[in-house]
Amino acid sequence: MESHPESGAPAAAPPYPPGTRLELTIDDLAFGGEGVGRIRDFVVFVPFTIPGERVIAELTEVKKKFARGRMLEILEASPQRVEPRCRYFGNCGGCQYQHLDYAVQLSLKRKQVRDLLERIGGFSEPPVEAVVPCPQPYHYRNRILVRTQWDKYKQGLNLGFIRAQDRLVIDIEECAIAEPELNQQLIEVRRHPPPKGGLKVQLRKNPENWVVPGHSFFQNNFHLLPALVNTVRRMLDQSAARNLVDLYCGVGFFGIELAGNVEHFVGVEIDVQAVRAARLNAQHRGVTNGEFWSGSAEELLPRLSGQFNPGQSAILVDPPRTGCSPETLQWLHGLEYGQVLYISCHPATLARDLQQLCAAGSYELKTVAPLDMFPHTQHVECVADLRRQQPSPTVLG
């Protein structure tokens, strides 16, 4: 392996062919968990590495200006490297950060959120708070989806997660980030596996005292859920909003939890079964100052404009990972709610949507609070607080 005479990097000009082995210094961690090494302007992404490390990597995919590689050897390890708890780490694609000290994970996730808000959202020095840690970084997930795939080499069924390096399924006997109850369910599934490959099996621990239909969404981390609710409540109280609209409300969790902080609330959800569950959940808790509407956000937002005084109301959106639709963003932009609280598990789509909501000075981004709902993975939950900008007074000459 040749080296550049000044930098220690290989002398050949990029792009290099797949299979090339390079000595790299990792100087950053990209959103998604891959370490970033550079040879001049040529970027190489290497999973399971840490900024400051020197590694030897073999290129597996080469594009015009960047490549991806797999780590072959650590020449100089970071003091922040720790021993992964899971025996499948590095092969299983579920976790990206088990090799990284937990406090450093939190710091890097905050940096990644800031970088995405700057690069995609166009915010200069975005107000991102410190990441709230999870009190239980392992065995926290209350829902996992395992897949089945026929392995022709062992002539048997693999049951587990998609591998890190390809789309094949790695066979697992336990998951280090899943609740113990889910690992017990996994043992039972392995004893009585599905009849063939290509099927998915959902393992789930239901929340206590909440009605949740089998296919409906509920937050995946019970241990940090109180902190998430308190973060949203803090922002809602700071705006002094009297009313709340909860879009994508699911089984009514946020509207019901925040009912005591507003005079009235409306939850909106397209899933009819989830709406029925939301009404039952409110009834079980004696919550009487809210209602739940069945329908899409795009369909119901125009009707909601006459329900409350927008200037005295907040709207909470907790959309899927893909973010809000262009139609929803257009309505939010024009309805002039005093506050928008945006909950997202995907900072890139969050940054994109915040950029549109803050366009032309309509809203101001007050703060973004990240919470580590997904320790040891690339994901991070964020709550953004947007406030309607007041028009500047007209000066009469």
| Class of secondary structure makeup | alpha/beta
**Largest sheet, order of strands side by side?**
12-11-10-13-14-16-15
What's the N-to-C terminus distance?
75 Å
What proportion of the residues form beta strands (DSSP E)? 25-35%
CATH architecture label name of the largest domain: 3-Layer(aba) Sandwich
**CATH top level of the largest domain?**
Alpha Beta
Helix content, binned percent: 10-25%
Order of helices and strands: EEEEEHEEEHEHEHEHEHEHEHEE
Question: Taking Cα atoms only, what radius of gyration do you get, to the nearest Å?
Answer: 24 Å
Count up the helices.
Answer: 8
Number of domains: 3
Shape: globular
Number of strands: 16
Q: Which superfamily, in CATH terms, is the homologous superfamily of the largest domain?
A: Vaccinia Virus protein VP39
Annotated CATH topology of the largest domain: Rossmann fold
- Report the major sheet: 7 strands, mixed
Compute the average pLDDT: 92
Low-confidence stretches: 2-12, 392-397
Structural notes for this entry:
By secondary structure, this protein is of the alpha/beta class. It folds into three domains: 81 residues, OB fold (Dihydrolipoamide Acetyltransferase, E2P), CATH 2.40.50.140; 203 residues, Rossmann fold; 62 residues, Beta Barrel (OB fold (Dihydrolipoamide Acetyltransferase, E2P)). 23% of the residues lie in helices and 27% in strands. The chain has eight helices and 16 strands. The strands form three sheets. The protein has a seven-stranded mixed β-sheet with strand order 12-11-10-13-14-16-15, sandwiched between helices. A five-stranded mixed β-barrel has the order 1-2-3-5-4. Helix 1 runs parallel beside helix 8 and helix 6 runs parallel beside helix 7. The longest helix is centred in the first third of the chain and has 18 residues. It is globular and about 65 Å long. The N terminus and C terminus are likely disordered.
